[in-house]
Amino acid sequence: MLHRVKYHVGNFLPALRSPNYRLYFFGQGISLIGTWMQTVAEQWLIYPTLTTNKSLLGIVSAINLLPVTILVLFAGVWADRIDRRKAQMVLQSCYAIIAFVMSYLIFSGRVEVWHVIVASAITGIVFAFDMPTRQALMINLVDKEHFASALSLNGAIFNAARVVGPAIAGALIAAAGIAPAYLFNGVSFLAVIVSVWMMRLPIHPKRTEHPPFRGQLAEGFRFVRQTPVVFVSLTLVAILTIFTWPVNTLMAVFAHDIYNRGEVGFGLLQSAFGLGAMVGAFGFHALYEKVRRKNRLLLSCVFVIFFSTMTYALWHQFILSLLMLFFSGWSVATMIGILNTVVQESVPDRLRGRILSYYSFVLVGGMPFGALLASLGVGIISAPLTIALCALLFGLASVVILYSTRDTFLTKLI
Question: How does DSSP classify residue 255?
Fold first, then answer.
């Protein structure tokens, strides 16, 4: 019976056939639940616990993500030079230390806004080096033909954690306060450290000399510039990130001010988006293999993101908002899956760390701009109108780019 289950799971999710990827999958799954718990806790700590300044939500989010914009391109070259397995163990340990320190400050009643800002900045610096290193390591855990399956599962565990983590955090904060969420996150990083330590990877000979740093960076840029499918994919990822991130940034405002649902309602809103994204990510591999016209699938995602986000922004009914966030999460995860797969399938392994750092640059590096856009908008107009404006800008920018590159990009997705 167990053999048959493994056989069917292996056919549907072939990346799980790899023992190393299974370790990565379960370790990351536990850690990401803790990460999303801390994300919810941090936002609720800023507003309304420590301050009544809604704009500070966007400012702290931008401070957390800005190091990615500054450092991730250099981190990509670094990821092509070092032992990625050892680097992951060090970086995950740094995350854990930050979470434990914040947990202590909150438990002891000494936490102040500047502590949150400093912790967010340091976490952002660690994340800038972690993201390209982790993605490059993850791809090396599976055979090339299973890339799409690995990317699908990677998105699935991220978004499954986004369902479970916020729901647990909302209930935990309401019952026991904010500090336990930080504490759980610190402990959860041990799962990644242990799983990476247990991996059995081939030993690659160390290179004593490397090409000049600037030359390696320039080589990656030339590849992106000369490969239209990669260039357009990265551009679309940037637009998606910048104009959809304000939904996440201002979700605490919707929960507290518009719906009056408190910590539990905030967790449910986060979980609704995460549930949609989890369904999209889990089903992406099968959907991508089944749908022949990938360009139509991409266009459908753009429309669903625009419609669901606009409805969420302007029609304030809690149940409807949960439904719209679900559809938004599904379409965002599917669109990211399409673009990520296109990039991964177009990149030679010798450039993988660098190209993934460029991907990280536009995916995560766009988030501070989205957070600042949210911060500016909520201070000038309102949270709902800010989200509606972002949905409109996302739709217009995506359509213009896809139409103008229909011969060099859209036709390649057929």
Answer: I
